[in-house]
From TrEMBL:
Organism for this UniProt entry: Serilophus lunatus
Gene name linked to the record: Sra1
Lineage, highest ranks first: Eukaryota, Metazoa, Chordata, Craniata, Vertebrata
GO BP: any one term: regulation of transcription by RNA polymerase II
Subunit structure: SRA1 RNA exists in a ribonucleoprotein complex containing NCOA1. The RNA also forms a complex with PUS1 and RARG in the nucleus. Interacts with AR.
Family to which this protein belongs: Belongs to the SRA1 family.
Protein name (record): Steroid receptor RNA activator 1
Any single Pfam family the record assigns to this protein: SRA1
Amino acid sequence: ALGPPPLGPVGAAPRAEGRPSAPCPEERECSVSADTVLAPLRAALDSCRPSVQKQVCNDIGRRLTVLEDAWAQGKLSAPVRKRMSLLVQELQQQHWDAADEIHRSLMVDHVNEVSQWMVGVKRLIAETRNLPDSSAEP
C-alpha cells in the first residue's frame, strides 16, 4: 500500500537533476535571448579560427547565421531555445560530453527544427574540444 502520488508539477525536474548549471524550469524557458546563445558560439568559433581550416570555420559560421535567423523569426520552440542555452553553458564550462548529449537529444527530439544548423554546432563542439588549451582541463 503506497500512498497517493506526490503533488507538484509532473515531469518538471527529472532531466535537470544532478545538473547544477540548469536554470529554473519553466519561467526562464521563454526568456532565453538569441544573444545569450549565439555570442558564446561565435566566440568559440573565433577561438577555433587560428587552428581550423578556413572552409570549416566558414561553414560553421553560415550555420550559426541560419540558427540566428530562425531564432529571430520565432521559428524555434521554447524547448529548443532552452536546450541550446544549456548546451552553450556546458560548452563554456568545457563539459564536452554534456554538450554532445544535449546536441544529440535535440537532434532526436526536434530534428525538423534543428537539422539545418545543428551540424555546425556539433562541429563547433568537436573543434573547440580539440583546441590545445582545452586539453589541460582536469
